[in-house]
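Internal QA ticket QA-208
Title: Verify multi-chain structure generation after dependency bump
Assignee: T.L.

Test input:
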Amino acid sequence: MSTIEIKKITKKFGEFTAVKDADLSVKAGEVVCLLGPSGCGKTTTLRMIAGLERTTEGDVVIAGKRMNELPPEKRDIAMVFQFYALYPALSVGENIAMPLHFEKLSTEERNKRVNRVAKILHLTEVLDRMPGQVSEGEKQRIAVARAIVRDPNCFLFDEPLSRLDVELRHSMRGQIKEVLSNLSKATVIVTHDQLEALTMADRIAIMKDGMIEQVGTPHEVFAKPANVFVASFIGTPQMNLIEAELKSFAKGVASIALAGSPVEMVADPAVSKLKPSKVMIGIRPRAFNAQDKAAKDTIHAQAELIEPMGAETLVHARTKAGADIRVVVPREKRVKIGEILHLKPDPKQTHFFGEDGKAVRT
Amino acid sequence: MATSTTTWEKLGFRKAFRVGEAGWGHTLWVALVSFIYFLPVLIIVITSFKVQNEALSVPAKFFPTSFFGLIPEQYVFTPTLENFTSVFSRAFTTGGAVESTGFDRYFFNSMFIAGSSVLLALVIGTLAAFGFSRYPLKGNDTYLFIILTTRMLPAIVVIIPIILMFRIVGLSGSYPGIIFLYTAFNLPFTIWMMKSFFDELSLDVEDAARIDGSSELRVFFKVCLPQVVAGLAATFVFGLILTWNEFLFALLLTGADTRTVPVAMNQAVAGGGIGVLWGLLAAIETLFLIPVFLVTFFLQNHLLRGVTFGTVKR
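Actual output:
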């Protein structure tokens, strides 16, 4: 079976810990994205799975076998590199055929396999060219073709789309997703682009400072972020994270002092377990309802900056006590600078984070 | 801003603030400077076709033909191949048989010794450079520095111990002796040069090859080496030129059978009591230029082709 499992892997470079106790399992046919900011250890994790880095601690299990000691060439994996890593001295066809070298195929069979993947990725025209003579998008497809020409245990992609321009990225995203869905192999994709992760992955593992913060479906990580970091990292525009003080909780309604002014909010029952304390309230910019009048459950803020985004408008507003709030309003609603907004948060989309930064949720 | 054509530009010197093809003015200026640089070589080539008294005449006779009377008679000489034949054989004015000067042998020696030592240095040096680049030793830079220190002293300083060492082991005057010496002479340069080429390569490409199932040897030969062909060619040319022209070691460490052209040239033209035989010297030098000129010219295409261009985006 094509599966990948990493168990408590840790990687240290001297004193520096790049990856700490990372746990992840990828089922056959599943696409998991490692998502995180630069330097969070996601590429190191991928390289440990590939065998390009040794693990300091923990196990890498591919297809049910512990592979810690095996060099990359013995792991039977395919990897697509960020900078494509095509062999400059070999033609496109030879590049694609390179992984087949050790399968001892007849020339005929090899050509058949190369032509098959070339057809899938629309590379038939350029097979005789050198890598220096093809376009950026073609280089990307050659790198993918080289990975899928064989029948490996699993696929690893390191920032596969980061070098393409926006338009090409959109079309390649679809193409890679389609190719992967036909192969039903365990696949790990490293990316720093959340849109890429949200669209391509079956599950997303969000990393920060060498630790996996949350693993979940794109829907889960967006709707139920496990902690403040995930909440702030996923979603554009960024979620509002407002420091507040929890006063009391009764009948499902939390009374809080939000940047000085009291607000009542419908909250998750789990919030009742919190003692009155400092909390962090997370509300997505699209989860506000702008009301006409002030009420007990509204936050008041003054519009300071207006950014039209086409279908919607992003408003940067500021509360009296100085907390910044981002609100997305429909295009039809014209907000003027200096206008006071009465914002009612959608209780279902309001997140409470305790003092430790973890989400408080049933 | 109004565009105006200055006198300077009319003369063909394009404005200097933009990247692009130079105008005719600059091109001709560079051609003139190049010509001055090339003049000594040209004079030698021309002199090689003159007999002794024409080579010495003042004013210098520069033209092999009068171009249908255009050039005054005093600047025109009569080209002859006499010098070239006398490089390889000489007849005595007093009569007697034509005898060989041994220069065919010396030319062979020069080619064989320079060629094999530069190739040997290239093989050893490239492997060493790959090692230094990919599998660094503890204190790698110190080793590299030590390698370079062997070239920091002028040859004249180390020649005496080397002569003694060669005497003791019996390498004096033999082919292996001078070839090994030149190999050692070329190695530091080769290692440094090739290391910088290997350092430039993308490690991702090598990792990709490993993941695709290649052994380390296959990674080296199939992936790394083809990317540094331009570097190999450049190192070969530089090494060849240095070795080809080397005089001091060759003078002191080659014997009668292993003598190279620079040494033989010195001995052939100096004697005779009638001063330096300029025509003969020029002929030897002209012939001596040809092999290294051809090698450089041929490899130039390799130097310029840029095999690695555009395959890895940084």
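Spot checks passed. The CA atoms of residues 10 and 181 of chain A lie 31 Å apart.
Status: verified.
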